[in-house]
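SEVERITY: medium
COMPONENT: batch folding queue
REPORTER: lab tech (J.R.)

DESCRIPTION
The queue accepted two submissions in a row. Attaching both inputs and their returned structure tokens so the on-call engineer can compare them side by side.

ATTACHMENT 1
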Amino acid sequence: MRTHTTGPTQHASRSDRGAAMVEFALVLPVLLLLLFGFIDFGVFWYNDLELSHAARDAARRASVATSAGEYSAATAIVKNARLVPTENTTNTSPPVTVSTTADGVTIVTAVGSGTYKFFSPFLPLTLKLGATAVMRHE
């Protein structure tokens, strides 16, 4: 005995499939914008954290330094931070500075700075990267 089915179990008509295609074409650019935005922001955040860690490591290295060569090695730590992608990121970190406060405490300051240009064609943004680490010279 054969029964005829009607309702939602029937195959979609040709016009319904066309409507689904149009809806997908309208939603796809928004989804791609979100996807590339999340990826770009993740890379930006990674670079910002990497620069922050490099500044902290450089300040720590310089805070225990006993010679001028060690200060330049500390500066190299910040200058050589692993920022990605290299073609969209610039590292403009200044040298590590040593200063003395009014009460005679020697302070070491390491600054990491640069810019990050989003690589997504949907987001033509350039944001600043920056981190500062200050430690007392031991």
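ATTACHMENT 2
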Amino acid sequence: MLNKKGRIYKLVLVGIVSASVILVRQNVEERKDRELKVRKGERGGYLRTSVNDAVKKGNSEVSRSEAEEVVRKVLKSYDVGEIIYRGKTLREGNEVIGVYSFEAIAEKDGESIWINISRDGIPVMMLNNRKVEFEARRYTEEEASENGKRFLEEIGFREMTEVGYETRENDIVVMYGREDKGIVVYEEEIKVKVNLSTGEIEGFDASEYIRRRRISLN
């Protein structure tokens, strides 16, 4: 027979064990939920982590439908309807980036946006062929550069800093280099084209960045 003090101790012990079991179950359920999201295609390494990490880890090849989902995420701020698959190329070593190629059609005017996604799910390049009427500049070079950097961060390139730019009529092409602990690696470059009238991103090219990163990591 337990005395009163012993019964109280037993009740406290049971309460602690029960709380621990509930906590463990919660952690297990949270982990299962995260794994389910990954299986559902929310893994988009370039969105969840930086592209630098994705290249370093060597993501497994994504399917064509997964690559199309990446396209929609990259072009989420554009008025895009139909996305047409235009083929793929194979990767050859670190020099040739294997890609899925797509043509995205703007719902408003039917113009095309061409975009390539690497076979491991990383945005490689985009070219917006939509016609924009020439208008007075509303954005400075600095503001356009910030727009470009913000766009790169949104699609997963989060270590980039401006290293120069060129203005072409009403557009600006901004060059960004990867920054590593305060040191800019100029060879790992991404170019972003920004319209100085609208501030819209008209294109980007990350192929050199991806090639250089793969070479330096292998």
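NOTES FROM REPORTER
The beta strands are 80-88, 99-106, 112-118, 123-128, 160-168, 171-180, 183-195, 201-205.
No errors were logged for either attachment.
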